[in-house]
């Protein structure tokens, strides 16, 4: 779609001021720590090109991505930033890390040996994180491996010591305290290496676990980092879709695939141009037995009618005065009135999946 033409079908608007505010808000939570930004999965679906310049302008100097190619994209936008690659050293790819000044988060002894050999052979001094597993059993050296490594006094000195919390979104979960303790123990082995433990939820926990560097991701994009309490984050994205047509449906007539939704009254249905191919998840579909997703149409919440299809979704707008909705109007599916977490709950998933499923058929506009 050319810039000179108005958007059709669907549009995603990104409020970079809100994004910057959310990043600052995370930092305020632990003023002694530096606040980084996690921008993996293309900036949680918003687009690395959209989020990294805004975060850099706000003062962010450290980024985390999952993969090398994401790191390369961030490097082009943030020439002076520290960039960590959370999936670690892909086998035989030391030179790509060095060529783009990316830092692997080394998550096993095998990776650590390969990186040490690469560093010894090339003299590369770009840094790497040592990722220690404190109870999640995903990536990271075991605590005893980190202890042995430290005791052997190997030459390897990480630029960051990190671990990841499995249950920080559930403050009362007993694993949290175990992970805090394990990390404090490992930290004491590397007292002069900057340390990092907190994702979005960890950043907002009361425990004294701020360490030197915060790693919020999802909260930056508007998701609530303290579930069950008011969301301190501003909404960042608005996903809107255009009405293709408004049609009358008689009592007893069906809407959509599988005929799962039956009209119980003379209804008006707005068909909007978005579907699961755009990341508007099919699990938000409704039927005669249960309601799930909603949309904001002319300022009112309206239920989705029937199954969400690949390219379109039906909305029951019967309760709006006739003529309020017409072809070409825009409908909000995610936004200030429909927070990401609420949309996720209604589709039986989490905000992360809503964000990272955002489609590629629509433009991403920056709010002005
Ligand atoms: C994704 C990720 C984060 C960010 O997590 P959020 O829950 O999105 O804040 C931080 N650290 C690691 C290791 C991650 O994989």
From TrEMBL:
UniProt modified residues of type N6-(pyridoxal phosphate)lysine: 40
Record has Isomerase as a keyword: yes
GO cellular component: cytosol
One example of a Gene Ontology biological process annotation: D-alanine biosynthetic process
Binding site for substrate: 138, 310
Keywords for the protein's UniProt record, in alphabetical order: Isomerase, Pyridoxal phosphate
InterPro entries found in the cross-reference section: Ala_racemase, Ala_racemase/Decarboxylase_C, Ala_racemase_C, Ala_racemase_N, Ala_racemase_pyridoxalP-BS, PLP-binding_barrel
The keyword Isomerase belongs to this UniProt entry's keyword annotation: yes
EC number(s) reported in the record: 5.1.1.1
Catalysed reaction, written as an equation: L-alanine = D-alanine
Pathway(s) annotated for this protein in UniProt: Amino-acid biosynthesis; D-alanine biosynthesis; D-alanine from L-alanine: step 1/1
Molecular-function GO terms, alphabetical: alanine racemase activity; pyridoxal phosphate binding
Gene3D superfamilies in alphabetical order: Alanine racemase, Lyase, Ornithine Decarboxylase, Chain A, domain 1
Active site (UniProt): 40 (proton acceptor), 257 (proton acceptor)
Cofactors (names): pyridoxal 5'-phosphate
Domain Alanine racemase C-terminal: from-to ranges: 236-367
Pfam families listed in its UniProt record: Ala_racemase_C, Ala_racemase_N
UniProt cross-references to NCBIfam families, sorted A to Z: alr
Entry similarity comment: Belongs to the alanine racemase family.
Function statement: Catalyzes the interconversion of L-alanine and D-alanine. May also act on other amino acids.
Record's protein name: Alanine racemase
